[in-house]
């Protein structure tokens, strides 16, 4: 027997020293570290992950990929807020990237920054840090004080958030710093590695979120990759899948403004392919970032007690349904997003169809942190995914009732990203959408604000969402739509248990209206003809008109009536909150495109040498920017505002 196992006094001392060093290495049970890498606007359906070879090899092949993970609102700021608060957008009421619908000002004004993920993890003993893009509206006017809850922040500051060669960030709410001569991806990588080193040295579990801007477009065109990647993947072009620039026969089945989009011509298609290539190339830099992060964790012996999560805020379309490139549609390209997990107890090289959303992430993180469920905030609309992640390798474990129902919502307009010459801004629109993501049946059902237009797609038979069955519905589709309308009536204003299992609400009403005992707890059961009248008599989901924020009187009826509170008991009121902008002078930025091969391993020390604080003129003076006329994320003559 080796001497270490002999229970002599010396051995005990050795063992306890070993335990201490295990502690020092962070190998404690039940409070694993969490490293999140969240990109901006990355698709799951158009092949963007294919070029990320390190992620393929070290995360996908050594972890779990969730093929049915969804953003419940296909816009950055609302989706990120849902991640951070564990609530649907209709309950955070952050429904757009700019005021009055959303933005960082609204997040703060409503007090939601006093009660969100970093506070909860901190209370559980975690160190919490954030590097990169937080959300729209964190800007020269709002950077200080730093966002609450985080032990450390170093956040991209608007109007520079989307500039790849003109990077301005604020560390802990200090005066913003301009980083000359480096590409944003290299800067964020170096900063993330520096923070991770420090976190590893501390004896506390940690949550760090690393959020680069790629592959989001710049303000004046597609994403700008690191120079060293501009010769890679030159043959990449936007996938010509069946819903790419479809014929009139299909386009005519869409709601009105989409229906009126002309067929994309040759010059638009060329732009689209350039945009696709730029995105792909920008993601190669992100792959390197992930590589360095994971290799650092490996080198420090942290892979076995760290969850590494790779995801994005929302998806992206390019040419699909004739939209040049952007997000904000209910279709699969915009809402189905990458979600890859590697970590302790997570199955290896498994792809799972278990449905889930970003609303589920906050409870999942608290579960990882061993926070008991009774200590969760009362307002979570999702549920922890951790047990399902761990069981995902077990083919016989199936998604149970309610989980296959995905509520998706939107207010705003499609922003045909970075396409100045082909910018066809859509009118303002909104929709309420349900996705049923079942093994046997799978549907996309939407009600739009204009004329209450309806869509129904069978997403098993018609995965590209081209044949709208609501236009001249067969009797079985009428019957189905009555059920989906009933569900959507609940999910569009659901909270907590009614989000996790909307059938319970309808069930209770059905039971009280009849003496019948039989319950429906899933779509198949609800389709029984005995419930025809019940569902037919429910009011239709609809809007009075199209608006780019959630105005309650516009969205009735509410079901049940008390659901009209829409999360307001858990935040301050959101009417007429103040928003700010500055009249700053824009810094010129890098003369050349950066991200050379020589900068591949640039250290933070090197990067800091060429950095400087913004000047007073570059800082500008804060101006109040509404209410009532919010400046928004727009250019005003002589003033650049975000
Ligand atoms: C991962 O799974 C895929 C599909 O099941 C298989 O083709 C591949 O060889 C596996 N890779 C590894 C590294 O096990
Ligand atoms: C897989 O799931 C089934 C059904 O829940 C269960 O009986 C079985 O023990 C599980 N197997 C493993 C390896 O977890
Ligand atoms: C192609 O379409 C765009 C956007 O509709 C338009 O601006 C452009 O003039 C068209 N180009 C040609 C060659 O028709
Ligand atoms: C749309 O539906 C709402 C709610 O049912 C209704 O009040 C409104 O009149 C409808 N609008 C149109 C144009 O049908
Ligand atoms: C949501 O925000 C809008 C815009 O600030 C406001 O008008 C509306 O009353 C809010 N709705 C709720 C339910 O808080
Ligand atoms: C910004 O506004 C302040 C206060 O109104 C003014 O003093 C300053 O000159 C303005 N700066 C620019 C660049 O317009």
Automatic annotation (TrEMBL):
Highest taxon of the lineage: Eukaryota
InterPro entries according to UniProt: Alkaline_phosphatase_core_sf (IPR017850), GlcNAc_6-SO4ase (IPR012251), Sulfatase_N (IPR000917)
Post-translational modification: The conversion to 3-oxoalanine (also known as C-formylglycine, FGly), of a serine or cysteine residue in prokaryotes and of a cysteine residue in eukaryotes, is critical for catalytic activity.
Stretches assigned to the Sulfatase N-terminal domain: 33-370
GO annotation terms (biological process): glycosaminoglycan metabolic process
Cytoplasm found in the keyword field: no
PANTHER family the record matches: N-ACETYLGLUCOSAMINE-6-SULFATASE FAMILY MEMBER, SD21168P
Annotated protein name in UniProt: Related to sulfatases
Species annotation: Cephalotrichum gorgonifer
Phylogenetic placement of the source organism: Eukaryota, Fungi, Dikarya, Ascomycota, Pezizomycotina
């Amino acid at each position: 027997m080796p001497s270490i196992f002999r229970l002599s006094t010396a051995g005990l001392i050795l063992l306890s020293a070993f335990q201490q060093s295990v502690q020092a290495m962070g190998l404690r049970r039940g409070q694993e570290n969490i490293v999140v890498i969240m990109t901006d606007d990355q698709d799951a359906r158009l092949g963007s992950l294919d070029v990320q070879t390190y992620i393929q090899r070290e995360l996908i092949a050594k972890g779990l990929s969730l093929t049915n993970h969804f953003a419940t609102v296909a816009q950055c700021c609302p989706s990120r807020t849902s991640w951070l608060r564990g609530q649907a957008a209709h309950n955070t009421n952050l429904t757009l990237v700019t005021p009055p619908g959303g933005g960082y000002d609204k997040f703060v004004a409503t007090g939601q920054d006093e009660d969100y993920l970093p506070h909860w993890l901190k209370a559980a003993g975690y160190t919490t840090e954030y590097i990169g893009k937080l959300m729209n509206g964190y800007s020269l006017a709002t950077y200080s004080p730093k966002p609450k809850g985080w032990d450390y922040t170093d956040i991209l500051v608007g109007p520079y958030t989307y500039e790849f060669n003109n990077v301005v960030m604020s560390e802990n709410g200090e005066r913003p710093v301009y980083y000359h001569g480096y590409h944003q991806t290299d800067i964020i990588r170096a900063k993330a590695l520096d923070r991770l080193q420090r976190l590893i040295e501390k004896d506390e579990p940690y949550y760090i979120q690393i959020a680069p801007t790629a592959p989001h477009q710049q303000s004046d065109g597609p994403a700008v990759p690191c120079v060293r990647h501009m010769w890679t993947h030159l043959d990449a072009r936007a996938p010509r899948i069946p819903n790419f620039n479809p014929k009139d026969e299909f386009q005519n089945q869409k709601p009105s403004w989409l229906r009126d989009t002309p067929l994309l011509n040759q010059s638009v298609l060329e732009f689209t392919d350039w945009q696709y290539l730029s995105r792909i190339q920008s993601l190669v830099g992100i792959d390197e970032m992930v590589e360095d992060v994971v290799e650092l964790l490996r080198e420090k012996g942290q892979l076995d007690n760290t969850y590494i999560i790779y995801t994005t805020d929302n998806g992206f379309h390019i040419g699909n349904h004739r939209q040049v490139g952007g997000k904000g549609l209910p279709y699969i390209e915009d809402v189905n997003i990458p979600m890859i997990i590697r970590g302790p107890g997570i199955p290896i090289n498994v792809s799972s169809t278990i449905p889930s959303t970003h609303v589920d992430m906050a409870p999942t993180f608290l579960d990882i942190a061993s926070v008991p469920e009774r200590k969760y905030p009362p307002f979570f609309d999702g549920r922890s995914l951790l047990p399902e992640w761990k069981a995902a390798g077990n083919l016989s474990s199936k998604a149970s009732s309610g989980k296959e129902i995905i509520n998706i919502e939107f207010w705003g307009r499609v922003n045909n990203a970075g396409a100045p010459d082909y910018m066809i801004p859509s009118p303002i629109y909104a929709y309420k959408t349900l996705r049923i993501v079942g093994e046997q049946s799978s549907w996309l059902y939407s009600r739009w604000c204009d004329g209450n237009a309806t869509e129904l797609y069978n997403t098993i038979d018609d995965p590209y969402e081209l044949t709208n069955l609501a236009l001249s519905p067969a009797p079985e589709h009428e019957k189905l739509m009555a059920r989906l309308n009933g569900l959507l009536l609940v999910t569009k204003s659901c909270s907590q248990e009614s989000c996790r299992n909307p059938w319970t609400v309808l069930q209770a009403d059905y039971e009280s209206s009849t003496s019948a005992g039989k319950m429906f707890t899933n779509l198949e059961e609800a389709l029984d003809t005995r419930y025809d009248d019940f569902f037919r008599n429910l009011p239709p989901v609809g809007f009075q008109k199209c608006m780019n924020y959630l105005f309650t009187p516009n969205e009735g009826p509410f079901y049940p009536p008390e659901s009209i509170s829409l999360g307001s008991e858990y935040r301050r009121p959101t009417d007429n909150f103040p928003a700010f902008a500055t009249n700053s002078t824009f810094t010129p930025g890098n003369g050349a495109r950066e991200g050379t091969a020589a900068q591949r391993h640039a250290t933070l020390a090197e990067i800091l040498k060429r950095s400087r604080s913004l000047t007073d003129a570059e800082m500008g003076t804060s101006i109040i920017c509404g209410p009532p006329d919010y400046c928004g994320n727009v250019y005003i003559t002589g003033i650049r505002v975000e």
